[in-house]
Specification:
The complex is a heterodimer of chains A (about 120) and B (about 110). Chain A contains no helices and 11 strands. Chain A has about 120 residues and is an all-beta fold. The model of chain A has no long low-confidence stretch (mean pLDDT about 95). Chain B contains no helices and 12 strands. In chain B, strands 2, 5, 6, 10, 11 and 12 form a 6-stranded mixed sheet that branches. In chain B, strands 3-9-8-7 form a 4-stranded antiparallel sheet, with no helix packed on it. Chain B has about 110 residues and is mainly β. Chain B is globular. Classes of the chains: A mainly beta (about 120), B mainly beta (about 110).
Amino acid sequence: EAQVTQNPRYLITVTGKKLTVTCSQNMNHEYMSWHRQDPGLGLRQIYYSMNVEVTDKGDVPEGYKVSRKEKRNFPLILESPSPNQTSLYFCASSPRDRAGNQPQHFGDGTRLSIL
Amino acid sequence: AQKITQTQPGMFVQEKEAVTLDCTYDTSDQSYGLFWYKQPSSGEMIFLIYQGSYDEQNATEGRYSLNFQKARKSANLVISASQLGDSAMYFCAMRGSGGFKTIFGAGTRLFVKA
């Protein structure tokens, strides 16, 4: 089954304790991205990757890091989480899209609470 | 800068009636794509429909259609014959030329009444 898998689905942690949210896709997609969803703001893009070893900032990259060492994986790293990073996070993937016409496939989301 | 605006935070519709969810956008790209996603209470994001900036005909997918008015920069979602299962959050999104970034609107929560 074609899917984007995120782990963990839920996490409660404390300020300053480094955490990683993993994301893996099995569709051989070149493009992957991370978004956070907050009430009244919709989804905002954190980082995206056009291919292996190619990453770039989205609209809200502060406090986050990513890496793309393999095509299928795109982990999101919070080096020193803070309460304002409490949110619902989505990983997504799509085929390479030069014309802006590819819908993204989303994972089921990760709900992070930073105390 | 690119921007998506959804002006309806919440809407009610009677079961079996049609409903229109508004979306306006702003971009300087010549080539772009417009998408609608559905987010039920379970939280997953479900792709519904796509409209390309060069498409002359409005997109349709089953009960979903996209009313695309390029000159007005609007891409409204029309759901015909609403069902109780249509109750969800709906997001309008745009992907620009090059496919680098995707931006989303704030969403519209739709409530379908029996």
